Request: fold
Amino acid sequence: MTLNLTLTDAVQFVPGVGPGRAKAFVKLGIKTVEDLIEHFPSRYDLTPKSTPIEDIEEGKVATLVGEITRLRSRGSLTKQRITANLVDGTGSCRIQWFNSPYLLDKLHEGQVVRLTGKIIVVEDQAKLTNPAWQTVDENQDALRVDQDKWNPVYPATSQLTSAQIERIIVNIIDDLAKLFVEFIPPDLVERRKLTDRRLAILRFHKPRTQEDVEISRHRIAYDEFLLCQLAVQTGRSRAHQIRGATPLPCTKTIDDRIRKRLPFKLTPGQDKAIEEICTDLARDIPMSRLLQADVGAGKTAVAVYASLVAVANRKQVAILAPTEVLVSQHLQKLTAYLSESRVNISYLAGSLTKSQRTTTLQKIRSGEIDIIVGTHALIQQNVDFQDLGLVIIDEQHKFGVAQRAALTAKGRRPHTLILTATPIPRSLAMTLFGDLDASIIEDAPPGRQPIVTTLVTEELETRAWTFVSKLIASGQQAYIVYPLVDESESLPLKAATVEADRLANEHLSNAKVGLLHGRMKPAEKSQIMASFRSGDLNALVATTVIEVGVDVPNATMMVIQHAERYGLSQLHQLRGRIGRGDQKSYCLLFSDSKNPKSIERLNILCESTDGFHIAEQDLLMRGPGELLGTRQHGIPTFKAADITRDIHLLQQARDDAAEILRDDPDLKISQHRELNRELKRRYAASQSLMFTG
Ligand code: ADP
Ligand code: MG
Reply:
């Protein structure tokens, strides 16, 4: 068959697709023939080659395909044995399984199976003990394969199964793989010992051996990393070419003045971050810096410092925070630090009355307000600044790239500081930001006690509540959190409400218990938070509105109900609400889950309080999309590359990209023509978005 297809043709014209299936392909992000060919298997199922029984050798692992005869079971319930014969026309082999009574439901005489195990010979009779088994459909599968067969498993949907995708691709891949061009310069192909791109594409879909799988995956993954690094690094250098920001130098006098205002001595980690920020601020290139630190490391103080440098340079500062609770917390801190100073601070949020809003907007416009803290309300069109010099985004994972850009657009090339709540594992940070312009605070404020984290199973619940109640009696405070995936969900809300009552009447009858949830009016929320902060409330039952940012140092207990429903990083964030003072803190993870995977996950948290380690584990278990929120943050999705496993390859690609760009920053020379084309094809849409602060 000859195919008259080009790579840019719509997928609908591929034999076996058609308009109906084309729609199903779109769901997988596949529109063109090229997209289809680049839809790579996510893994392979191995069908090992089978050996005729007459050819088996003692001591070797073999796969036999044949029919089961003489199936017997004997022995007691605890010491049970199943025996059978396997016959394949060339001979027969004895099989025995110990203590696997369930097999009697699965196997029957006359059934064709594929068995894999180590052959032993006893009295001239070949024998397999406890072999792995698989039933074989006589009508469909090839009964015997004379070579190991790696069956690709494709990302699929309910309308389009992996097997269907495989059939469509296998049919065209020999012809179409040839149409792909090599875009990596030959010297690099040689130096990195990359396999030919066309061959890699072909073998990735149709591997003959495990080595085929590895070599081709390696090549495709390298391509993905290299292109991503080229995109990251060109975007970076382009951003660094932009000038026109107002330099905001930090003099010794300014530094002294700011430090006097803070109620504590900054940690070395905070100092280092501040130094890096000040270097950026002093230039006419708009700063675009990421501040990463584990929960509770003190990012806010660094942000306050940066704000005051901007104000000292007579610029306005906008601080964007995801929730009104956080806005009022920032406002309170700033107000306390800056009491009796001339710095004018205000806030903008949904809870303002119309006239308050009008006045505030007017004062932002006239320049009377120096620092404005706000929720999404800050991004609205009617917010105009007199002279916005610095934008700070707190808890960046709660905002999309477009929202951040909307805020920076309100100034003339303002400097931007982004605070991340989730420590991003190094590998991921490197992919996202090209390892540049990120400050990391690695230490914590002094006197912190490690948080003790315990898994509370059903049997332990009563004892756990007694413990909470004692802690409260001694004057400490507790959070009790209910999972709420979506703020509009009403079921957990009801659970939280009922629970608040129940706790107040039963386990925590000694305590004043408050309730906080996302659907309360902002004023109500602020009031509850204020009562908790002041100590009027001993315990706060909350849905996950308190997940980010909330800072009440006297709270030393965090109870998380149905802990198994959260991701690790989210749990770590929640736990980060405690352990902020100098008293010992406790995190109780309530879970009645029997799922070993869930328990294993929760145990990671019991054993570690290191946010970077936890994020790394979370990344391994759930992938980068889940870890950082959504795709809107510009995380590239890789098809073959795996940022958790392929860190070494990623580093190579980063170095190679830097070398390519050093000699040819715009990828103009003829040797780089195909590379440039491929880069545009893959990153044209997202490139500008990935790097805007
Ligand atoms: P996060 O990095 O999670 O946003 P915060 O900025 O809320 O952390 O800081 C956590 C707590 O640590 C706050 O109560 C803050 O006042 C306190 N803190 C921050 N820096 C220091 C410091 N250098 N010394 C003592 N306490 C500090
Ligand atoms: Mg914070």
